């Protein structure tokens, strides 16, 4: 459990390590520097209902505006997204 808590955050951008990472452009290094998370604004916003460009904007917004309150809001928004399958393909 300690390893899990060290390796992951609860909320944070979910980095895409596939060849698509080039689509992050100049923001790629910043986004990849953060620990991957279990959920984030992209997941809470409906995952596949959000364009790739919007996903990058959400990740950058989170990185620049992180707070405990934002994490709490994301967790609360993620619950109905998961339960209702919002944005799932």
Contiguous helical run count: 5
Taking strands numbered 1, 2, ... along the chain, how are they ordered across the largest sheet? 1-2
Biggest sheet features: 2 strands, parallel
Helix content: 40-55%
Cα distance spanning the termini: 31 Å
Mean pLDDT: 77
Question: What pattern of helices and strands is seen along the backbone?
Answer: HEHEHHH
Please tell me how large the radius of gyration is.
13 Å
Strand content: 5-15%
Overall number of strands? 2
Write down the domain tally: 1
Tell me the overall shape: globular
Query: Which structural class should the secondary elements be placed in?
Result: mainly alpha
Contiguous low-pLDDT stretches (5 residues minimum) are 1-6
Question: Helices, strands, pairings?
Answer:
Elements: H1 2-7, E1 9-11, H2 28-33, E2 37-39, H3 41-44, H4 52-65, H5 68-84
Parallel strand pairs: 1-2
